[in-house]
Specification:
single chain; mainly alpha; 8-stranded mixed beta sheet; 6-stranded antiparallel beta sheet; 51 helices; 16 strands
């Protein structure tokens, strides 16, 4: 840099003539006498001990003479401390002549020409710091006491403070004065700091101070009077002579940080992350320092100490005149590099490299949060894991509390950061050289050729031959290997360091290469962060990639300890792992050559449970987490690259070398993953490993399915076994310990060490690469750990249950399955049941919301296993186990207790479930077992668990023409219960009852189908609306089987028989109420004690009137019956007299039946005991509903609109490079030319496309869900070219469902956003807005169908864990209750009965705030976004808040979507065909769902499955965390209870019978 400029070092070393006084020509005694007397007088006028007076010196000659005396006084022996002190005081006062206001004691000539005299005084100050004549430095103070040394140090401080103040406040200094000041500071620093360090001497005491003054004044000079090139060259040469001083590196770091902070500010603007420095350091930069000046000063200060890597070469550091002089004069030191002070070089080297690493981080946009120990020598005992050694520059240190699973807590890289090449041009040579110290063929002691120059030249990346660049290619490891040799003649693995000058064995133990490991770790960590900061599409020069890969190869080698049989995780390896999380997530050319070396390193860290990093500042948990991040980015490589060879970086002379292939690494990766999971104790790390395990299983299964049975098994020769376990005492068992699969499971005991025996010898017959082997191993391992170690941690338990649910859905190729599948699945279900039983049996203090959440998740997982493997219920033992756990969840206890205990019947048990949430989950599982297992999907399809038939649809199929009245002859597009057709509403053809306050029956007594006179059987059609959906039943009362009903068993009509002429004997017998013997029994007095009936009415006039009225009615009835008998006799006599005969004919076939009554009676709902009101509830088991009340139709539609499954929506977006607005993003999917073809492939893997208007399930918006309508014109037109816009929710969506949940995938567009805006105007969209023609079925909502809130009793506080059972005692409202009067004899008309105001329904504790859509979610809508990024760096710019406006589902409940509450899954396609995942979500205890993990790399084969499962798990965890959430079947039950309270008809038993015998109104 300054090669063409002359250095001023000789001037400093030889001294300046102005520093010598004329008194030095005389004997010391005479000169001392003169100096003492003159200086004492001059000091008397300074105002120190008395008031200051004007100086008597008035001419230049007088001043110059006195200055000669003062100059001599400053060189007196230290024993003359008072005189030296007065000399310092005099000059310090006189230097105020350069101040804006000089002091009064300053001589007039000095004030008139201050710069001239200031330069002389500054030069004279040098005598204060130099050794005295005849004394050898640094032995000057060996015979003096510490008091003398301290006194001199105080004077030196005074001089330095004065000069520093002068530079700060003076505005009169010219260039010559500035240069003199800078040369003086260089000279005294060289005087004090040049010699080897001696503890507690003046140089040691003043080291930090003189250096700080030098650097601060130099910075001031850069602003006021920029130093000349000779000065800069001299400054650099002097600093290189002081590099054995720690304070120099600290001040160098300090200046670099301050200048870098200013440099970043004006280079990249205020939006770039600020490098925060202390307020004291920030003041080092003058306010008026220009940008060009800052840039020039920054570059020069950066290089002022030469090559920092020289600090690890003692021979270079000690090659100075002062060290050579010390070696010559000392008897103990033979060679200069053996001086004791050089033992600090490892720490100095580490701090210097750390300072460079901080600068690198600053340019990357992730500045250090703490710089303690970097710019000062102060120590602290509160260092965190990110403040020292490999930690300080390792900003990849992770926090233990994350918002999203596996998310790195490092600050994000600045989008405007410079390119990697630019940073490497600046710092790369130093970092690469530091990274290679101690490697094979290099030494940390330089040779003679290096002693003469500061550093070696780095190979110029810009001069690479074009053919070399071409040979490298994208990902071509051969090109990288060739470039290693050909890129530059000055670089190779063996020539990265010069040969050794001396044998390393001659070095002191404190200077061996191992002592410099900390600095090397810093350099490698900085390099890893630079290369991991590569942007999408950015190119890094091949020479840099080559050097980086070689450095990592050397750094990843595992050193052996002295015994040679143990591997340790040193600082270098820790630093690489901590800073290389993104290494395989980027498109780095040829990075795959590092896979074997990284895998070797991970096999050291992850399987070792007792691993202790060498550096005390590296957290074991964070080291393991970083290792897991790297592992998760490598899991899919074997099946993706398969037989692609992995080239060695340097094969040497081995011609028989056979490269590894990726598929050969799969057994090692699987072993590593499983072993790491067995020993992992950190919850966060465990969840990440569980996500990786599910990825491996599903990827292997998808690969085998795609390959049509071709299974690769390249790992047979690998000595490691898939089942090899690590040192965990709970799971470490050899294969000989495994038992047969046919053995029964042992009793599960918590903490039982023998639990590990549950691993069986299943894989001995399976390929270690097969998906089936992984499936079995994953099931056993996770179930075991769930029972033994994870059950007390909610998040880990949820992750394990999510993995088991994913395994249940995994489709294993049939040819890979074994006969043991049934038993394996059975054991998995039994483990889940045992887990629930153990959790429920924990003591009451352990029961909490978290515990119950884990139980609920276990029930859901069991439902998934049973629905995916229906054959499990064919096994009696499995069915018994599941039903026992269901019973435990519902009632709180099992009927079958411990062996030997009697069975406890249902009526004997007290209903005490663990919590309402547990009971609800158990009920849901029971319903799945009874209704769905083996029958899902239903004939209606997977989109509906309920029947698609409703009242209107049933009436269209009735035989009775009266039911086909308009508008129901055709299915109207509006509500089936439309109020404008109230007179002919289909509701009036049905009778509505509520059974057990939880099930609503709609009974239609008209037969269905075509009329058949020969098959007129009593028929009833039911619509059963219960907590788990709506079902349609049609039943007939038949006396013969259906196949025999058409046969005629009677013979043809035989004709009339011959009548008999004998007249029957008739006898008139008067009926008696009592036998005749009663009249013969004499009466006694007791008989007369019973009063007659008439005597009871004497005193009661009302009773007498009622009796009279009853008597008249009886007389009237007797007369009517007598008249009828008489009329009948007369008719018979008339026929007989006319000679006619009466023909007996059978009665006509009955076509009308009261089938509703028959159904209720046959099913036991009309018995006396069934109609009694229970003591603990005002609601009878059977209640009739009044359908004529206002709002019944709306409430019924609302009930039909509440799905019996959870419904979720995922919105997908495609972001092209550098797009930042929602309008641009929404427009991308309009054409396939603007999206990646893999994006469309990904969409097709999420679910199956459905037409919104013909779809009976969830469609992404409540206005179009759970209904079938006709689409508007143009909605269902085929789209020939689209980029996903076809699934925008207007006409089609992507849909997926299972027995527990349904999920819609919507790709919003600008058009769909406007469409949803029209829907959201009123909060709903009626079907009339969507359709103008008939539809197959009508299940639409009314305008107010989902805004009717469930009333919440204000007097009941919300409780979280109370058992608010449905049959808890309630107080019925007595005022205004409706009854039917029977006193008038008139029939009761229920249609005229108005019920009272309904009391609050039961179980409202978790409803919380209600609003639109609350009946569907009762807990809020979870927003999940999946965003495909062309450029990964754009994730930080995606306008999530604006995109939320296009994600309206109608479930928001009136609340505006919050960006912070949204879950985002970013996907970025790599050039290799793999995809990188990034997760972003709200902070919470249960929001970090699996299987996707932040930073995971996945294949396209399983991308859709993993995204879908992660989205579902995110929503499920959010519901578990929500205290106000109700499961779907509970919301339906609550709605039925509300309708019961609102529309029930209170009737007595006779009134109910009367109501049943009457015909429904038509």
């Amino acid at each position: 840099m300054y090669s063409e400029w002359a250095s001023l070092s000789s001037l400093i070393h030889n001294g300046n003539e102005e520093n010598f006084s004329v008194l030095g020509k005389f004997p010391m005694a005479e000169g001392k006498t003169v100096a003492i007397s003159v200086v004492k007088h001059l000091a008397g006028n300074l105002g120190i001990s008395q008031a200051a007076e004007p100086s008597p010196l008035t001419t230049d000659r007088e001043v110059l003479w006195c200055m000669e005396v003062v100059c001599f006084g400053l060189s007196l022996p230290l024993s003359e401390h008072d005189t030296i002190r007065d000399c310092v005081f005099v000059y310090c006062e006189w230097l105020s002549a350069l101040h804006p206001i000089p002091k009064i004691s300053v001589p007039k000539p000095v004030c008139e020409d201050p710069n001239l005299y200031a330069r002389k005084m500054i030069n004279h100050f040098h005598n204060l710091f130099v050794p005295r004549k005849g004394e050898a430095w640094p032995f000057l103070y060996l015979d003096l006491g510490h008091d003398v040394i301290n006194r001199q140090a105080v004077l030196c401080h005074r001089v330095l403070r004065t000069l520093q103040t002068l530079a700060q406040v003076s505005n009169r200094m010219n260039r010559e004065t500035w240069e003199s000041l800078l040369l003086f500071l260089l000279a005294i620093n060289d005087t004090l700091l040049g010699p080897p360090t001696v503890k507690d001497d003046v140089g040691d005491q003043l080291c930090e101070r003189v250096l700080s003054v030098l650097f601060e004044v130099w910075l001031l000079a850069c602003s006021r009077c920029f130093p000349s090139p000779p000065l800069w060259k001299t400054f650099r040469e002097m600093c290189m002579n002081w590099r054995h001083r720690m304070a120099l590196i600290e001040q160098w770091n300090r200046a670099n940080l301050v200048l870098t902070s200013k440099l970043l500010e004006f280079m990249y603007g205020p939006s770039f992350p600020e490098l925060k420095v202390s307020e004291e350091d920030a003041q080092l930069i003058p306010c008026g320092m220009g940008n060009d000046c800052v840039a020039q000063a920054w570059f020069r200060f950066l290089h002022c100490i030469g090559n920092p890597v020289d600090l690890c070469h003692p021979a270079i550091i000690s090659q100075t005149q002062k060290f050579l002089q010390f070696a010559i004069t000392s008897e103990d030191v033979v060679d200069p590099y053996q001086h004791p002070c050089l033992t600090q070089l490892p720490k100095i080297f580490s701090k210097a490299i750390r300072g460079i690493a901080v600068l690198v981080d600053s340019f990357l946009g992730m500045p250090k949060a703490s710089l303690i120990g970097l710019t000062s020598g102060r120590t602290t005992t509160s260092h965190s894991a990110t403040t020292t050694n490999s930690g300080p520059s390792s900003t990849s240190s992770l926090s233990s509390v994350l918002s999203t699973l596996g998310q790195d807590t490092r600050p994000p890289l600045a989008p405007a950061r410079p390119k990697c090449n630019s940073i490497l041009h600046m710092f790369g040579e130093w970092l690469f050289e530091a990274a290679h110290i101690g490697c094979h063929g290099s030494s940390h002691i330089s040779d003679n050729s290096r002693l003469g120059e500061a550093s070696t030249k780095r190979p110029s990346s810009l001069l690479l031959d074009g053919s070399v660049r071409k040979s490298i290619g994208s990902g071509n490891s051969l090109g990288i290997q060739g470039m290693m040799v050909n890129a530059s003649p000055s670089f190779s693995p063996a020539s990265s360091q010069p040969a050794s000058l001396n044998d390393a064995t001659e070095l002191p133990p404190s200077l061996t290469i191992e002592k410099f490991e900390s600095g090397r770790a810093e350099a490698l960590g900085a390099l890893c962060r630079i290369f991991c900061a590569k942007k999408t599409g950015e190119e890094i020069l091949p020479v840099y990639l080559a050097r980086f890969y070689l450095a990592l190869q050397q750094g990843l080698k595992i050193p052996e300890d002295k015994s040679g049989d143990a591997r340790i995780c040193g600082e270098v390896l820790s630093s690489i792992i901590l800073n290389s999380s993104d290494l395989f997530r980027l498109d780095l050319d040829g990075v795959q050559v590092l896979v074997p070396y990284v895998l070797d390193a991970l096999e050291v860290v992850l399987p070792d449970k007792e691993l202790s990093p060498k550096s005390p500042y590296v957290s074991k948990t964070e080291l393991r987490r970083a290792s897991i991040h790297i592992l998760l980015s490598m899991l899919v490589l074997p099946l993706h690259f398969q037989t692609l060879p992995i080239r060695e970086l340097s094969t040497g002379s081995d011609k028989n070398y056979t490269p590894l292939t990726f598929i050969q690494l799969k057994p090692r990766l699987m072993n590593l993953l499983i072993n790491a999971l067995q020993v992992e104790s950190d919850p966060q790390n465990t969840q990440m490993l569980l996500g990786g395990l599910l990825l491996s299983v599903q990827d292997a299964a998808a690969y085998e399915e795609m390959e049509q049975g071709i299974q690769l098994d390249q790992g047979q020769d690998t000595p490691s076994n898939l089942l090899s376990s690590a040192s965990d005492t709970m799971s470490s068992h050899s294969l000989s310990d495994y038992r047969s699969l046919t053995e029964d499971l042992p009793e599960l005991q918590e903490g039982d060490a023998a639990f590990g025996n549950l691993y069986y010898d299943y894989p001995c017959r399976l390929s270690k690469n097969s998906a089936h082997a992984l499936f079995v191993q994953a099931t056993y391992l996770v179930c075991h750990r769930l029972m033994s170690s994870w059950k007390s941690d909610l998040n880990v338990s949820l992750a394990a249950l999510e993995l088991l649910a994913g395994l249940a859905r995994t489709h294993i190729r049939k040819t890979a399955r074994k006969l043991t599948d049934d038993l394996e699945c059975k054991r998995a279900v039994k483990w889940l049941c045992d887990y629930v039983a153990q959790q429920c049996s924990r003591p009451p203090p352990a029961h909490s919301k978290d515990l119950h959440s884990s139980i609920v998740a276990a029930f859901q997982t069991a439902a998934t296993w049973l629905s995916a493997h229906p054959f499990l219920l064919h096994d009696k033992e499995c069915l018994t186990t599941v039903l026992e756990v269901v019973e435990l969840g519902i009632s709180g206890t099992k009927s079958q207790g411990k062996p030997g205990e009697p069975i406890k019947m249902k009526e004997e048990k007290e209903l005490k479930p663990a919590s309402m949430r547990v009971r609800d989950a158990a009920e849901a599982l029971l319903t799945v077992i009874l209704e769905q297992v083996g029958y899902f999907p239903s004939p209606c399809g997977a989109e509906s668990l309920s029947s698609l038939l409703d009242e209107a649809a049933l009436l269209r199929h009735c035989r009775s023409p009266s039911s086909l009245t308009p508008p129901f002859h055709r299915n109207c597009s509006n509500s089936i219960l439309n109020e404008q057709y109230k007179g002919s509403s289909p509701l009036h053809h049905f009778r509505y009852f509520v059974i057990e306050n939880s099930t609503m029956l709609a009974l239609l007594e008209e037969p269905l189908g075509v009329a058949d006179e020969q098959d007129s059987q009593p028929t009833v059609t039911l619509l059963i609306r219960g907590p788990f959906g709506r079902h349609a039943w049609s039943m007939q009362l038949r006396h013969l089987p259906r196949h025999k009903s058409g046969s005629k068993y009677h013979a043809p009509n035989p004709g009339r028989p011959i009548p008999m002429g004998e007249a029957p004997v008739r006898s008139d017998i008067k009926p008696r109420y009592f036998p005749e013997s009663v009249d013969r029994i004499p009466l006694c007095k007791v008989d007369h004690s019973i009063p007659s009936l008439e005597s009871t009415f004497v005193e009661d006039e009302k009773s007498s009137m009622e009796h009279s009225h009853l008597a008249r009615l009886m007389e009237r009835q007797v007369a009517a019956e007598a008249a009828a008998v008489q009329k009948s006799k007369a008719l018979l006599e008339q026929i007989r007299d006319s000679g006619g005969q009466v023909e007996c004919t059978p009665p006509p076939v009955c076509h009308e039946f009261q089938t509703a009554r028959l159904f209720l009676s046959h099913f036991g709902f009309l018995s006396s005991e069934s109609l009694k009101e229970p003591l603990n509830s005002p609601i009878a088991p059977l209640m009739a509903l009044d359908i004529n009340q206002t709002g019944f139709s709306n409430d019924l539609e609302t009930l039909d609109g509440i799905s019996c499954r959870t419904c979720d929506t995922v919105h997908l977006f495609y972001v092209r490079a550098r797009q930042k607005t929602a309008e641009e993003i929404l427009a991308n999917v309009n054409s396939s030319s603007t999206v990646n073809p893999h994006f469309l492939e990904f969409l097709s893997s999420l679910g199956w496309p459905v037409s919104v208007h013909k779809h009976s399930g969830w469609s992404g918006h409540v206005s179009t869900s759970w209904r079938v309508t006709e689409s508007q014109s143009g909605f269902d037109l085929p789209v020939s070219d689209h980029g996903g816009s076809l699934y925008n929710g207007e006409s089609k969506v992507l849909y997926w469902a299972d027995v527990n949940s349904e999920i819609a995938f919507v790709v919003p567009t600008l058009k769909s956003q406007k469409f949803m805006d029209t829907i959201s105007t009123d909060g709903s969209l009626t079907s009339g807005d969507l359709s103008s023609g008939p539809a197959s079925f009508d299940r639409s909502f009314s305008d107010k169908s989902y805004i009717t809130p469930v009333p919440v009793p204000p007097e009941k506080p919300m409780r979280t864990f109370s058992l608010d059972l449905e049959r808890q005692q309630q107080l019925a409202q007595q005022d205004g209750s409706v009854t039917c009067s029977a006193g008038s004899g008139a029939s009761c008309n229920p249609n005229e009965i108005m019920p009272p105001a309904p009391p609050p329904p039961t179980r409202q504790k978790r409803l919380g705030r209600q609003g639109p859509g609350s009946l569907y979610t009762s807990g809020g809508d979870t927003k999940v976004l999946v965003i495909w990024l062309e450029s990964f760096e754009d994730w930080i710019h995606v306008p999530i808040g604006d995109l939320l406006n296009s994600m309206v589902t109608g479930l928001e409940g009136g609340a505006r979507p919050n960006e912070r509450e949204s879950f985002v899954i970013f996907l970025h396609a790599l050039q290799t065909g793999l995809l990188r995942v990034k997760l972003q979500g709200p902070s919470g205890r249960m929001t970090i769902a699996t299987p996707l993990v932040d930073g995971m790399v996945v294949s396209r084969r399983v991308l859709g499955t993993l995204v879908r499962q992660t989205s579902l798990n995110m929503c499920r965890r959010r519901r578990l965390e929500n205290d106000t959430y109700h499961p779907p079947h509970v919301r339906r039950r609550l709605k039925i209870q509300e309708m019961t309270q609102k529309y029930m008809i209170k009737m007595s038993e006779p009134e109910l019978y009367t109501y049943l015998f009457s015909s429904p109104p038509s």
